[in-house]
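Collaborator request, handled under Task 6.
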Amino acid sequence: MKNRYSIELGDICREVKKTSMNPKSDGFEKYIGLEHLDSGSLKINRWGDIGHEAISFSRVFKAGQILFGKRRPYLRKAAIADFDGVCSGDLIVLEPIGSELDSRLLPFILQSEGVWRTAVSTSTGSLSPRTKFSLLKKHKLLINKDVDQRTIVNILEKSHRSYERYLELTEAVDRVLKNLYLEFFPNFYEPGSNQLSLPRDWTTLPLGELLLEKPQSGFSANEIAGSSRYHVLNLNNLSVNGYTSRGIKPITESDYDPKLQLSNGDLVISRANTHELVGLVGIVKSINEGVIFPDTMMRLRVNNNIISNEYLECYLLSPYGRRAIQRIAAGTSASMKKINKSNLMKIQIPVPKLTVQDRIVSILKNCRQLKSEREMNLSARSLLRSKIVEQIAQ
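Structure tokens returned to the collaborator:
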């Protein structure tokens, strides 16, 4: 392409490694962890208070610099700081350099499809992969010298404002969903002033008594390059909103185990992941023949004469259901926790009549569907933003 020339990401930004051994004494009031950033958003809406919380973060950032999530880069977390503070080691602090591009373009380039693909492909670690700036900075960019950069910046900034407004609507739906979960599944089992008794005609049963057999563990087959008629799920297929079909991995026929073949309607749970993600559940949908599940998941075969798969999924995704699972997750590693079958089967489940279960599922299903649609729309807007970026830097 005659109108484009090649540079590397490291030609337009650099990593800033300034630290503070005592952030509070140095006058910093706020800190940022990976959990404070929203996927796809360049705006920081949450932070921690250094004055009221003990932290071990020491990496300093300044207003105008960019915080790029190097841990689990598939989450696509990068944002512009609008205040000074310190941040987690899970974030890379970046600032623009050079005169090749308008500095206002840098945040949008960092949130583009190509950069995230490089971040994911250069990350290492199975459950909590991380990338490094020393690898990211080699990402190639083809710069279009014939495009007016100020025009592209104006378009991107308008697109960004539209994205943020839609994100606010999505977050509002998420708050409604959380309130619905708490309405149906308040604190039934944690001792304290807010503990409530079960409604009349409800009963409590351990999860093990709701299953037809013990949870079934999977097999983590090795991913292969190219296409295959056989596939395996990965942990990205389970989200806080249930099952998602993204990222199913192709495998060899020799790694395929027919006893682990998934069917539509199967309920699976992650048995190993980070503390905040371990124990996520989902009901498999739109699955083709030849798909199995990995050893980081278990399949739950539910006795549908007592409880429906959909109702059990809803309870285990609710705030108190999640807390029950997280309490039994064990492990010495800060980045990986595991659930064993014995403890999982002891988790207490509130069980109403099947007709009540169906009503609860119906209400939650509508809200969850709306949330999924909003998130898909956000993804489409993010992709459009990347396409605009490609007009200047491909």
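The cover message to the collaborator said: "The helical segments are 106-110, 113-121, 133-136, 149-184, 309-317, 319-328, 341-344, 354-390. Residues 354-390 form the longest helix (37 residues). Please let us know whether this matches your experimental observations."
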